[in-house]
Design brief:
With about 260 residues, the protein is an alpha/beta fold. The protein has 10 helices and 10 strands. The mean pLDDT is about 90.
Length: about 260
Amino acid sequence: MRSLPLFHRVAGQPVIVLGSGAAAEAKRRLVERAGGQTSTELEDGLSHGARLAFVAHEDAAACEADAARLRDAGVLVNTVDRPDLCDFTVPSLLDRDPVLIAVGTSGASAGLAKQLRLRLEALLPANLGALADAMHAARSKLRARWPSAADRRLALDAAFAEGGPLDPLKEDAAGNVEQWLGDAVAPVGSQEIELTIRGDDPDDLTLRQARLLGSADAVLFEPSIAAAILDRARADAVRRELPHDGALPAGLVLLLRRGPKA
């Protein structure tokens, strides 16, 4: 990755937006939509403790000067159409409140990010946010049913999977939450799955392999497995080289072994 994606909470917080014209106005709308309080004066924003700033002057020299002053003051800066002057970039946003999907290209192509977001808009139900709200309301019931975090992850992975009772691409998924929780399902236990990796390119992974890598609680791998493949695993998954005989977390454990190239 070239950037670390984060969601920054700005509700009720000051955010500096400098400049005039359509670009500056768009940034002001974006900040206010997230609940932030825009400040159009640099010094005023700094005096109120702003930590983020957007610079959208039409004059390049003014952009460079203000970006430097803000950065010297410890503020993170986004300078419109100047990736070289940006501490952070603004992704194309798909809003299904409270679900928020951000598509970014680290400043390489805003147009590409926009088109990807539009494709996703057509795939995701308009009421996807209702599923997130229903799951939030059910948090205490989830913990009571599956006290172990690993068991909860396995249960949720199965429920959210394609065709599952809580498949997020189904329009009525939110209405299935209570029934899913009440169904008498078999206890979710730990499992170990072995995968044969035949190349170094993550794009060559099968859909099943990619799905399991994204779900596993622990990944045990032979030294010959490429780093690019391991990067497809969950960031918080335990990773150990084979052979390994130490303790592992409960849940899904993957064993990645090298196979002959396809």
